Amino acid sequence: MDELNALTEKVIGSAIKVHKELGPGLLESAYQECLNYLLLKDGFVVEREKPIPVVFEKVKLDCGYRIDLLVERKLVLELKSVDRFSPVHHAQVLTYLKLGGFKLGLLMNFNVPIMVKGIRRIIN
After folding, report:
1. By the 8 A CB rule, do 108 and 121 touch?
2. Of these four, 18, 83, 102, 120, which has the most CB atoms within 10 Å of its CB?
3. What is the CATH number of the domain that holds 62?
4. Could you give the count of Cα atoms lying within 13 Å of 12 in the half-sphere of its Cβ?
5. Please, are residues 80 and 109 in contact by the beta-carbon 8 Å criterion?
6. d(CA 124, CA 96)
7. Where are any strands of DSSP class E within 1-124?
8. What is the span of the domain harbouring residue 117?
């Protein structure tokens, strides 16, 4: 878990850097593009819009679930640009963690004055 915590700290640092540069008020896609760029530049393996299938009766079905960013094949990032988180945002990350077999996700809202106030760690 220490490795995952270290990765999480680096990703949060990158998100803070993006937020300081751009500020709040942009579309989610702009933050996603910039964070993806920065993480790739820093040498991380990043998958963008990673499909997550639902397995039903041993059959994988594409139901349209997509992780915004998957870092190092283990950290789920769900990015938002909203007034405030709602319970469905938390549930969305939990669903991705469960369907993908991941341990940790970050729910990140870039539409806040201070980025650290817009980050929630979600554990499966």
Report:
1. no
2. 18
3. 3.40.960
4. 17
5. yes
6. 9
7. 46-51, 54-56, 59-61, 66-71, 75-80, 104-109, 119-123
8. 2-123
Whether the per-residue pLDDT at 1 is higher than 80: the answer is: no
Tokens 């709602």 belong to: 86
Which residue in the block uniquely carries the two structure tokens 């349209």? Answer: 64
What does the chain come to in residues? 124
Name the pairing type of β-strands 75-80 and 104-109. parallel
Residue appearing with tokens 């106030």: 117
For residues 41-53, average pLDDT: 96
pLDDT the model gives residue 70: 98
Q: Of 75, 90, 54, 55, give the one whose Cα is nearest residue 5.
A: 75
| 81: three-class secondary structure by DSSP | coil
Q: In this model, does residue 63 exceed pLDDT 90? A: no
Q: How many domains does the chain have?
A: 1
Place of tokens 């980050």: 119
Q: Give the residue carrying structure tokens 């910039």.
A: 34
